[in-house]
Amino acid sequence: MRKFDVGFAVAGSIMSILFFMIVNYVTSTEYLWFIYPSLALLLWPIGLYCAKQEKHKLFSILCSGLIILFLISENIIHSPVHPWSMYAIFPILWWPILIILGKRAKTMSVAWVGSISIILYYLILNILISPGYPWAIYPAFVVLWWPLSLYHALKKTFFAYSVHASLLIIFFFITVNAVSSPNTIWAVYPIFCVLWWPLSMYYFVYKKRRVN
Predict the structure, then answer these.
(1) Which chain regions cross the lipid bilayer (predicted)?
(2) Fewer CB atoms inside 10 A, N or C side of the chain?
(3) Counting Cβ atoms within 10 Å, is residue 73 exposed (0-12), middle (13-18) or buried (19+)?
(4) Is residue 20 within 8 Å of 34, Cβ to Cβ?
(5) Whether 98 contacts 105, CB under 8 Å
């Protein structure tokens, strides 16, 4: 099967972007919609070149930078009052960071540095941009799964993983319940369901291994 040449991809993406720009200008000048297909078209030659040259680090750097520029431009054009693009910039930067680190990205130190830095980043955004509600607890809950899962995967302690993960989920629901609706104690319902995870792991995996 014939492979596409990088030059063809560059020419095709440029021609397509120019076509969308002209159509956008002729039909609807009040809204710059051509930037959306242009983003995908720019990724075509970049991805093809990096794949043929096996430059995965360069691909992650160029693509993450292009996506960040796209989000910032969208933010400035449509809603310059609220800097919502800041919410996505820092997590996107971790894509090239992890690719550059290579095998070191699978270490516990990187997992802890990454998760703590992301939590602090969103905590600062929460305080400075939207202090009305402590929404930073949601990305913090998601990011903490990174070092937790990696630690137990390396140690192969799956029953302990179910216990620690259940405690994390329980703490999360209790915190959300206390913050969002303290007058209604609804956290007991998901907590009851979560408790079945370590309980089933104990009786069907851990205890069975001890008997054998």
Answers:
(1) 7-27, 33-51, 58-78, 84-102, 109-129, 135-151, 158-179, 185-206
(2) N
(3) middle
(4) yes
(5) yes
Question: Is residue 6 within 8 Å of 14, Cβ to Cβ?
Answer: no
SS (H, E, C) the chain: CCCCCHHHHHHHHHHHHHHHHHHHHHHCCCCCCCHHHHHHHHHHHHHHHHHHHCCHHHHHHHHHHHHHHHHHHHHHHHCCCCCCCHHHHHHHHHHHHHHHHHHHHHCHHHHHHHHHHHHHHHHHHHHHCCCCCCCCHHHHHHHCHHHHHHHHHHHCCHHHHHHHHHHHHHHHHHHHHHHHCCCCCCCHHHHHHHCHHHHHHHHHHHHHHHHC
What six digits make up the tokens of 105?
Answer: 């990205």
Residue 141 has pLDDT above 50, yes or no: yes
Prediction pTM value: 0.82
Q: Note the pLDDT tens digit of each residue in 70-112.
A: 999 989 988 889 999 999 999 999 999 999 998 898 999 999 9
Which residue is it, tokens 């800041």?
86
The identity of residue 154, as a single letter, is: L
